[in-house]
Amino acid sequence: MLPQSPVLALFFMAVAGLAVAIQAPLNSALGRSIESSVAAAAVSFGVGFVALVLLVALSGDSAAFGRAALAPRWLLLGGLLGAFFVWASLWSVPVLGVLTTTAALILGQMVGSMVLDYIGAFGIAARDLSWTRLTAALLVGTGVILSRF
């Protein structure tokens, strides 16, 4: 198991952000290649599914799949949200470009995250809605506008 290090978490999220920037145009190109954005999203999810199943098997935690059957059903909505994200990003790249698509994604994540932090959703610690957080989202919103126009 990896140590719970803020530096390591920041590194992983920066790399994940890079991956999202690369994933969207890759999936968009796949959609054009097979002439279906929805099928491209499904293929992308299928490849990711296989990779994750292999990782779980290699980590020796296959029993977790059985425990997943006991989880509340509403927790499975994360998979639907992920599927929507993959499809929406690959569909949006040809319309907006990679930069604006990513900036809009980050803006949506920030606004949603502020709300989730404020209400303490899903068992996370509640955090105040501060002017600095609102300003950060406003600056990203300005970036979305500047990246497009």
From TrEMBL:
- Swiss-Prot/TrEMBL keywords: Membrane, Transmembrane, Transmembrane helix
Spans traversing the lipid bilayer: 37-58, 70-90, 96-119
Name a GO CC annotation attached to this entry.
plasma membrane
Q: Which InterPro entries is this protein grouped with?
A: YdcZ (IPR006750)
The lineage's top-level taxon is Bacteria
Q: Which residues form a coiled coil?
A: none
- Which Pfam families is this protein grouped with? DMT_YdcZ
PANTHER family registered for this protein in UniProt = INNER MEMBRANE PROTEIN YDCZ
Name this protein carries in UniProt: Inner membrane protein YdcZ
